Amino acid sequence: MAKQKRKVEKKKIIQALPFMLPSFIGMLIFSLCPVLIAVFLSFTDWNGLEKLNVQTFTDHFIGVDNYKTILSSSEFWTVLLHTLYYIALYIPLVFIASLGIALLLNKKKKGTMVLRVLYYIPVLTSWVAASLIWKWVLSPKYGIFNQILGIVGISGPGWLTSEVWAMPGIVLASVWKDMGFFGLFLLSGLSAIDPTYYEAAKVDGAGRIVTFFKVTLPLLTPSIFFCLIMSLINAFQLFPQVQIMTEGGPNGATQVMVERIYTYGFSYFKMGYASAYSWLLFLIIFVLTMIQMKLQNGWVHYES
After folding, report:
1. In this predicted structure, what is the pLDDT of residue 256?
2. How far does Cα 298 stand from its chain's mean position?
3. Distance (Å, rounded) from C-alpha 232 to C-alpha 95?
4. How many CB atoms lie within 10 A of CB 294?
5. DSSP per residue over the chain, as a string?
6. Among 13, 268, 283, 294, which one is most buried in terms of CB atoms within 10 A?
7. How confident is the model at residue 206 (pLDDT cuts 50, 70, 90)?
8. What is the rounded distance in angstroms from the CA atom of residue 134 to the CA atom of residue 43?
9. What is the rounded average pLDDT of the residues 176-188?
10. Tally of CB atoms within 10 A around 166
């Protein structure tokens, strides 16, 4: 019986292969091959302009020199600190904003569907358009943000022209852009919570605040965990808003990992060096993700 079942499953797989093949070929050419090539390039000083072949790789092979140079340079650690500073501001703010949106949109009231669409519009907006909008919003002279602060008697900072305020300005733009995306996942988590838990809490005399911390948050932890994983990976890949809004300035205050990879690869034509930078970024994200996966056992509750 088991043998016949395996034979049927094998037949189904063979039948499905012609339909899976185009996607597999596409993944092989556009995903797997570039990854493998990047591994080899990270051990070379190839400039990205010469024709890439086995001979070129042999001529430009330098071993682990790129990794040694990067890890021994003060720039790498400064850029990593800038990225971590962005993450420290971005993740708490985007989580609070997303959770607030999810709680607001979870209420069954008239106009809620319209609000759901409106809150998701920034997610659909391209980063080029969003960055240009926020570059104007945060303009120290003409920006609406400083004008609003001026109404209440606060003199707004230079934002993108200030070494202190440039990164917080980028964080504001990122939170505005991403809160609808993470809010959607948190909303789906709220919708999946069994109403009987709230009824039981009400019978026990629990108020709204107690119910939120004792019922809603624990049952929402799977969605929160997913949002934390995705937001961390997303934050380490910070690039378009930096490139358009500040270009890494002022005075390198917003230089981050991916911005450096782009600059070394396509401005300085150090493709091998940029590849090594990319793999170091991958290792950082991988290690932090594995730590999060390990720590989830202590606070994520999948049973509801």
Report:
1. 95
2. 24
3. 11
4. 9
5. -HHHHHHHHHHHHHHHHHHHHHHHHHHIIIIIHHHHHHHHHTTB---SSSPPSHHHHHHHB-TTHHHHHHHHSHHHHHHHHHHHHHHHHHHHHHHHHHHHHHHHHTS--TTHHHHHHHHHHHHHS-HHHHHHHHHHHT-TTT-HHHHHHHHTT-----GGG-TTTHHHHHHHHHHHHHHHHHHHHHHHHHHTS-HHHHHHHHHTT--HHHHIIIIIHHHHHHHHHHHHHHHHHHHHT--HHHHHHTTT-STTTT--HHHHHHHHHHTS--HHHHHHHHHHHHHHHHHHHHHHHHHGGGT-----
6. 268
7. confident
8. 39
9. 93
10. 24
pTM exceeding the 0.85 threshold for the entire prediction: yes
Q: Which amino acid is at 192?
A: A
Instruction: Write the single-letter amino acid at 70.
Output: I
